[in-house]
Specification:
Oligomer: heterotrimer
Number of helices of chain C: 12
Structural class of chain B: alpha/beta
Number of strands of chain B: 36
Strand content of chain B: 15-25%
Largest interface: A-B, 66 and 74 residues
Helix content of chain B: 25-40%
Strand content of chain C: under 5%
Number of helices of chain B: 34
Distance between the termini of chain B: 58 Å
Number of domains of chain B: 5
Radius of gyration of chain B: 27 Å
CATH superfamily of the domain at 128-219 and 232-290 in chain C: Transmembrane di-heme cytochromes, Chain C
CATH topology of the largest domain in chain B: Rossmann fold
Largest sheet of chain C: 2 strands, antiparallel
CATH architecture of the domain at 128-219 and 232-290 in chain C: Up-down Bundle
Shape of chain B: globular
Chains: A alpha+beta, B alpha/beta, C mainly alpha
Radius of gyration of chain C: 27 Å
Structural class of chain C: mainly alpha
Distance between the termini of chain C: 76 Å
Number of strands of chain C: 4
Largest sheet of chain B: 7 strands, mixed
């Protein structure tokens, strides 16, 4: 099966935040939780680039490794998901995550974290595909419907790519060779231990 | 143990089987590539792919069982992105990418991807309300319409029809905009306006005065053909994000030059190949500086100028003054950089020029725009793919609303305020011309001359409060403005808000018909009575057509019924017309069902009268068919390659000549001589006479033709310039016999005495247009574009310093225009500028203040700031300050500051964003905020539960005086301020 | 072992990198303020690889008011994972199992330290009710904190296979809440211990002698000691400093992003866990000596009184002081006229 990945072509990203609101829209993510965000590097200077970032669904995911209760699992599409039933909100995945993906609702009286929430690659969670329980806990399961993550689908400039890693790497390679520049497949080395030769 | 791998495979298999894909990934490979933005060329390199399943996976159907799919158009800018809504049991439950749209191909920006929230409407106005002794009180629609109608009639009796100001909206559908203009005409005033006043009014005036029509010449997708893309005063990445898809892909594929000229290093500039930082308000020196290099090096397109341009020699004279040294002195841009840019634009063609409010919102807005057009003309960059003046407009339908005459100077479709135009619409509306004459106020001038105001341009929306606050004798109408009837227009988008606040207090009646209460409802807490709030459906809750910036018209379908007690704009206008007593005349040819005028009928009426602009061929049936068959249209050419609309351009971009039956395909590029008119080609429009008398240096006079000189569009039977078509011209050419008997009968009915005078623009049969087009001719004629726009205040654009300039030393050489009376009001810009220089304002307020858009918000922002998904992304009003300026003032990034403005002792409290986006001495604010005024949180002034999530100071609290003489455009892009840590 | 050391070095390096980053950002800003007159933003675009090489971390600007979200990439998370999953487990296992093993060996070799003269039957008050309350408050909290803390590092390997995911998760969540909530009484306990016993825990010359003689643990020696001998003082300072350190780092973790950002929290977690396992190891020794390790010791904290013989053997100087003080008090009482 396909090995799902995200790739943000920073030379296309214009920080329009469509990915961010598409995610909110599709999964009804509450205020204060940002499964996806856009970070601008070198803001206002020549060389400025914006990058859309969410869970990268790492190979050998650090979050899964450090989870004290082992609540993470990897699907056949290599999407890294977790069970909110098992999550205890300890925050360890946030320390380990290279991309700041895990989000925690504030619960209780003192900064205590609730159950972790993160990008699911629009693939839901352990509950039955498309079930009400799954939607309420993790949001929509587009992958099961044969659709890709909405953030990438709605990306204004087709900067954010989601899908089979080989295919999107190929698309990126072609883009770079066509236009002659590319600031890199942001996060790929860290997440997948591989770079895209361009 | 946790993985439900097996389960998913089973389910996927089931789904895949159901939809007939044979791929394993749940979506087929080709679909995926399409979605990843890989163009056809890339597909080929990836090898053969299973084609059998191309569309089926996409047609997998809605996520929610039983959901239906409805298509509408995103309202947040003019790109015209298709929205796909999934509706279940009357609730909008999901949004999907509209892959088939040849405009956005599934993409959205933050706003488009969050539209569903607008119709959930946590913060929407739920029912009509009325302010009673300072308290918001719920009332019924009947009571509201009755009370408002009575008050309007009362004001009309007391102060005249012109005392009611109708402020319309760029978020109307075309049908809403048309009816709103019609409503004002039936009421008897030209005091009707909308957001175009403050965004592209100067563009429309400047461009129309150059080559005929005031609109984007090419299209968003056509920019893919450009080799050089020049942005001046446009931050499309934030204002029109989806356009960047075409621009960046085009830039990549063509290895094009992308030049951004802006005082601010914007998100657009980040992707440029050349960034030019200029001082705000020096667009003309930049263009003249470029032309200086172009003329000096002979880079201009001499044949183009010879054949298609009038008056370029006058430009050469003006341009000679702008040596690289003078340009650098005024703009701050080094000569070498400008030479590089000029060379690229002139020689690496096709080149396109994109501009926006950074250039239009100035006292020299029209002149700026004119200079841009001249640059395009001088380099031959108009009228071909990849060239043109690509003017990005701001709302879904600001183009349509402009076209349909929500404007103080025209009737629908640019029929000017003259008797002939009134008579034309009287014929279309089947209402006696004299009935209209009686509806308007008659004013008596000091010399005893009586004027009917029906042919007098109204008061611009930028100055409604001046018309409220000024002494009656200073306003050239019967009385000042006593009532504002605001439909879908924010209250914080106009400069000088302190005065707007006083204006609101003084109004006798304020009606805000909007999905949200808007700033109008909250700005003036001293107003205790006489304010009505009417809940209006958003554009997503209505049916109707919308015109994108590229002049393409799309039919949007009602997604859900109006929520709460909201009503459709059309219904409100009908109810009001009924109350005011002219509904029967106004809706004579429009079917009304349950008080709701049928939008299809309204569009048919537009078609029947819209000949001047080619709004005549876009019938509702054709538009609906385009929307239903989007997949047939090619993205790059916008042409349908197959299906029922084969040969049509998407959305039938105007001009779409003749009647719908004539099946003109629309005009994707204006003035494109490479296509025959029948296929969407055209020529420049001779709109300013056929010839002009010129005085030569030796004093002798000669007549110079304004018609095209030896150029013509493809397949034209006339191989030279020609005037606009009339029945008389057809007769001269012997083409009159091509007219059908029915057409002839209509022509004769229009002007029984001199049918020869009936022109292409008023021929309700469409016959003259049809015949002209059949013979390969443009109905409006074939003329030259004007480099010298005689008749305008500055026929040759000249640089004029902003009213509040950071360079008072330049005012003596480049002063603003003298005081004058414009649009019924005095414009005292000259005095204000002089006083500012004399008082040394630039020393007290040493920082340039300019403003612009954020991607998350739109316009006044009440709607988008009420959307929780968007509001979360921008939670505070801020001012961008250069690190050097911040350090001098002890300002920290993210800290609170007080910003003070040059007029009214204005002050505003906001956060500082310390960034190098702005250069030293420059500050920038977004213009979407309101709800705080001079440090005071006005949240309590909104009716309970309707306050936007995010409030903040409006930058227009700080902006100042200054109006373009041609359109009344305000000047929020170049003023002065001071900032200190709070 | 070499591998572990290398890993540890890496941890230190990435923390240094994080600190260097903050510095770099501050110095980089003014240098770039003046832009060259002609710039090509496409050609000068930042490169991900270069940024990572320079700083091993990428940080930028986001519009949402959420500080943590502006760190785009911190590969250090991978290093921290290595720390948590490998290094920490080794340190913890060695410290705790090592201590246990030593105690077992010691017990087998030495057996219980008996009272040489047996119980006299006469008791003397060693700890007041307040002192005992504070001790047991802290001790109970400590036990729960230790177990729930160890669960985070070792539970997955040891308990999860036994309990199954659901039960283990429930237990771990309970453990997390106990850990979070009991941290407050524990901290109070540590503070009170610090204040209550600081007077008797300043090291002095007696301690030198005590240490020189190995505390008398080996053989039947009884070096003189005051209220607290040097070994107990050591425990005191371990509790005060270790408790303090784990409390401070713990609160940084409990209130994420209030005091630190992500690299600070990673550091805090490292300090917290190292201190905690060493603390636990030390406390194992304390518990041993206070229970089965020494006859008559538990009563001191259990009942508050000790046998006079026990005092004579282990804390002769304190006993002397106590007796002198008691006599003085009695004398004073006697001097008072009868009513």
């Amino acid at each position: 099966m396909a090995r799902m990945k995200f790739l943000c072509d920073a030379d296309r990203c214009i920080e329009c935040n469509a990915c961010v609101t598409a995610c909110k829209n599709e999964h009804e993510v509450p205020w204060g939780m940002n499964r996806r965000r856009v970070v601008t590097i070198n803001d206002g200077k020549p060389g400025e680039r914006s990058v859309s970032m969410a869970c990268m669904h790492c190979t050998d995911a650090p979050c899964a490794a450090v989870c004290p209760v082992d609540c993470f699992y990897t699907t056949a599409d290599a999407v890294v998901l977790h069970s909110k039933d098992l999550c205890i909100g300890c925050g360890y995945c946030f320390y380990a995550c290279p991309f700041g993906a895990p989000q925690y609702p504030k619960v209780g009286n003192f900064g205590s974290r609730g159950k972790m929430d993160k990008c699911t690659f629009c693939a839901g969670g352990p509950e039955a595909d498309g079930s009400k329980e799954e939607y309420e806990k993790y949001g929509a399961n587009r992958l099961a419907e044969g659709k890709l993550p909405l953030c990438a689908e709605m990306c204004s400039t087709k900067s954010l790519l989601a899908g089979d890693g080989d295919v999107i790497a190929q698309i990126y390679k072609e883009r770079v060779s066509r236009r002659g520049y590319g600031s890199g497949a942001w996060g790929w080395q860290t997440a997948y231990r591989e770079a895209i030769a361009t | 143990m946790l993985t439900k791998r097996s389960e998913r495979q089973v389910r996927r298999g089931g789904l895949a089987a159901a939809i007939g894909t044979q791929e394993t990934g749940g979506f087929d490979r080709r679909t995926f590539l399409r979605r990843s933005g890989l163009v056809a060329g890339g597909l080929a390199t990836l090898g053969a792919l299973p084609l059998a399943s191309v569309r089926k996976a996409e047609a997998a159907g809605p996520a929610v069982a039983g959901a239906t799919i409805r298509k509408n158009i995103c309202t947040h800018c003019s790109v015209g992105c298709t929205l796909i809504a999934e509706v279940s049991n009357g609730v909008w439950v999901g949004q999907e990418p509209g892959w088939d749209s040849p405009i956005n191909r599934g993409s959205h920006c933050a706003k488009g991807a969050a539209t569903r929230e607008l119709v959930h409407g946590d913060r929407r106005l739920r029912y009509p309300m009325k302010m009673v002794n300072g308290q918001w009180t719920r009332i019924s629609w009947d009571v509201a319409i009755n009370e408002i109608g009575d008050k309007l009639m009362d004001i009309r009796a007391k102060s005249g029809a012109d005392s009611v100001y109708w402020l319309g909206s760029a978020k109307f559908t075309n049908e809403g905009a048309f009816l709103n203009r019609k409503l004002a005409a039936f009421w008897g005033t030209n005091n009707i306006d909308h957001q175009a006043r403050i965004c592209h009014s100067t563009t429309v005036a400047g461009v129309a005065n150059t080559w005929g029509y005031g609109a984007m010449t090419n299209s968003y997708t056509d920019i893919r053909n450009s080799k050089t893309i020049l942005f001046i005063g446009s931050n499309a990445a934030e204002a029109h994000p989806v356009s960047l898809q075409h621009i960046l892909e085009g830039k990549e594929a063509q290895r094009a030059n992308m030049i951004v000229v802006d005082p601010r290093m914007t998100r657009t500039a980040a992707h440029a190949t050349e960034y030019v930082r200029i001082r705000s308000g020096t667009d003309i020196p930049i263009v003249w500086g470029m032309l200086h290099h172009i003329f000096k090096n002979g880079w201009e397109d001499k044949q183009f100028i010879e054949q298609r341009v009038y008056g370029m020699d006058d430009i050469r004279k003006e341009v000679e003054k702008w040596t690289p040294e003078e340009v650098e002195r005024v703009t701050g841009v080094p000569g070498a950089q400008l030479e590089k840019v000029a060379k690229m634009f002139a020689t690496q063609k096709p080149s396109t020029l994109i501009w926006c409010m950074g250039s239009t919102q100035h006292t020299v807005g029209t002149a700026n725009v004119r200079a841009f057009c001249i640059l395009c003309l001088a380099t031959g960059n108009v009228g071909a793919p990849g060239t043109g003046a690509n003017i990005f407009r701001g709302h879904t339908n600001v183009q349509g609303a402009t076209d349909l005459g929500l404007d103080i100077v025209t009737l629908p479709l640019y029929y000017g305020l003259v008797e002939g135009a009134w008579r034309h619409w009287s014929r279309v509306w089947e209402v006696d011309y004299n009935w209209f004459v009686d509806r308007f106020d008659k004013i008596t001038a000091a010399d005893g001359k009586v004027t009917n105001t029906m042919n007098t341009p109204g008061i611009p929306s930028t100055r409604w409060f001046d018309a409220t606050l000024y002494d009656k004798k200073d306003i050239r109408q019967k009385d000042g403005i006593k009532a504002m009837f605001v439909m879908g227009h924010g209250g914080n988008t106009v400069t000088r808000m302190a005065e707007a606040q006083k204006g609101i207090e003084k109004l006798e009646l304020l009606v805000v018909a909007d999905p949200h209460p808007t700033t109008w409802a909250a700005l003036a807490p001293n107003r205790k009575n006489g304010t009505y709030l009417l809940p209006i459906a958003t554009s997503y809750e209505t049916n109707g057509s919308r015109t994108s910036s590229n002049r393409a018209i799309q039919w949007g379908e009602q997604i859900v019924k109006p929520i709460f007690e909201s009503k459709d704009d059309l219904e409100v206008m009908y109810l009001l017309a009924k109350k005011l007593g002219f509904a029967d005349q106004m809706f004579k040819n429009i079917k009304v069902e349950n008080n709701l005028p049928v939008p299809e009928d309204v569009l048919r009426e537009i078609n029947r009268g819209g000949f001047s602009t080619g709004y005549c061929g876009q019938s509702p049936e054709r538009l609906k068919s385009h929307m239903a068959n989007q997949k047939d249209f090619d993205m790059l050419t916008q042409k349908a390659t197959t299906g029922p609309n084969k040969g049509d351009y998407y959305g039938l971009p105007w001009p779409c000549w003749g009647t719908p039956e004539f099946k003109h395909p629309g005009t994707p590029l204006l003035y494109n001589t490479n296509l025959s008119v029948k296929e969407g080609g055209g020529t420049f429009r001779p709109r300013f006479g056929l010839e002009r008398e010129e005085t030569l240096p030796d004093g002798t006079k000669r007549m110079v033709s304004l018609l095209g000189n030896g150029y013509y569009s493809k397949d034209s039977e006339i191989k030279d310039g020609y005037p606009e078509f009339t029945f008389g011209i057809l007769k001269k050419l012997g083409w009159d016999k091509d007219l059908t008997a029915a057409e002839l009968a209509i022509i004769n009915k229009i002007n029984p005495t001199t049918p020869d005078a009936v022109s292409w623009a008023i021929d309700l049969s469409g016959g003259i247009q049809r015949v002209a087009v059949e013979h390969g001719c443009t109905p409006y004629g074939n003329g030259k574009a004007r480099a010298n726009a005689f008749g305008l205040p500055d026929p040759i654009p000249v640089h004029r310093e902003p009213i509040y300039t950071s360079r008072p030393d330049l005012v003596a050489k480049y002063p603003t225009l003298p005081n004058a009376v414009q649009f019924r009001l005095p414009n005292i810009g000259f005095d204000v500028q002089k006083a500012a220089v004399d008082k040394g304002i630039a020393k007290t307020f040493p920082l340039i203040l300019t403003s612009g858009r954020l991607v998350e918000y739109e316009g006044g922002g009440e709607e988008t700031r009420s959307n929780k998904w968007l509001a979360e992304l921008q939670q505070d009003m801020f001012i961008e300050v250069n690190p050097a300026d911040a350090a001098e003032r002890g300002i920290k990034d993210g800290g609170w500051v007080w910003v003070t403005g040059a007029e009214n002792n204005s002050k505003a409290k906001m956060k500082a964003l310390v960034t190098e986006r702005v250069g030293k001495g420059v500050t920038w604010c977004p213009f979407h905020f309101a709800g705080w005024f001079e440090g005071i949180d006005q949240r309590g002034n909104y009716p309970k539960g309707t306050d936007p999530i995010v409030l903040g100071e409006s930058v227009n609290t700080l902006t100042t005086y200054g109006y373009d003489p041609v359109t009344g455009m305000q000047e929020p892009k170049a003023t002065l301020c001071q900032v200190r840590a709070a | 072992m070499v591998g572990i050391l290398a890993k540890l070095l890496m941890q230190v390096r990435f923390l240094a990198g994080a600190l260097a980053l903050a510095f770099l950002i501050t110095i980089a800003a003014p240098a770039a303020a003046q832009q060259p007159s002609s710039v090509n933003p496409t050609a000068s675009a930042v490169q991900e690889r270069q940024l990572l090489q320079e700083l091993n971390r990428i940080q930028g600007r986001v519009s949402i008011p959420d500080r943590k979200s502006d760190v785009l990439e911190q590969p250090a998370g991978r290093d921290w994972r290595q720390w948590h999953q490998v290094t920490l487990r080794w340190i913890g296992a060695i410290a705790i199992l090592g201590t246990l093993a030593l105690l077992v060996v010691f017990y087998l070799a030495r057996g219980q330290v008996k009272l040489e003269r047996g119980f006299s039957g006469r008791k003397i008050v060693r700890f007041s009710a307040v002192e005992r309350f504070v001790h047991w408050l802290t001790a109970t909290c400590f036990l729960v904190l230790a177990v729930s803390g160890l669960n985070v590092t070792f539970g997955k390997a040891l308990l999860l296979p036994l309990l199954g995911p659901s039960a283990f998760s429930t237990w771990s969540e309970l453990a997390k809440y106990s850990h979070n909530f009991l941290s407050f009484p524990f901290t109070i306990g540590v503070i009170l211990i610090f204040l209550m016993w600081i007077g008797s825990n300043i090291p002095n010359r007696t301690d030198v002698e005590w240490v020189k003689r190995g505390g008398g643990i080996i053989g039947k020696d009884h070096p003189p000691a005051g209220h607290f001998n040097a070994g107990q003082k050591m425990i005191y300072w371990i509790v005060v400093l270790g408790g303090g350190a784990s409390a401070v780092t713990g609160y940084l973790l409990l209130f994420p992003f209030y005091g630190t950002e992500i690299s600070g929290m990673q550091l805090a977690q490292i300090v917290h866990s190292v201190v905690a396992v060493l603390f636990i190891a030390a406390m194992l020794g304390h518990i041993y000596i206070g229970t089965i390790g020494m006859e008559g010791a538990f009563e001191a904290m259990g009942e508050g009184t000790v046998d006079v013989n026990w005092a004579k053997e282990h804390h002769p100087l304190w006993l002397e002081d106590e007796l002198t003080r008691t006599k003085e008090t009695q004398a004073q009482a006697a001097a008072r006229p009868a009513e």
